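Allow me, if you will, to draw on your knowledge of protein folds for a short while. I have a record of one protein: its chain in single-letter code and its fold written as discrete structure tokens. I remain grateful for any guidance, and I place the record below:
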Amino acid sequence: MLREAENIHGLSEDLREDDRGSLSIGTTHTQARYVLPPIIQQFRLRYPNVQFHLHQGTSEQIAEMAEVDRIDFAMATGSHELFSKYVLLPCYQWSRRIIVPVDHPLTQIERPSLHDLAAFPIVTYVFQLQ
């Protein structure tokens, strides 16, 4: 009970002093590189006394960080089954594009299906194999 009382006291201190403390986010490389930089910059200007930690990894690595309480929250795409114990909140949607040379056969198909795409090699993310 003493530990719980200390936890509650710590939580109330955190709420009273929202300009201090630390924040740890787990995210994939894509969000860390393309989505978060302007947001982090604004956060650091607004909360200069908050220690900010950004952890990058695959969805599997991010789920593990969450499991061991290494991060306060995560930003990840897909892999919903890895985060079944958590509340998932959508914050944006990706617009995915297929990029091919002008003379590529896929340019002749108005809306290529997965079956159409499967006929060609694709350069994409590196996925972690388990």
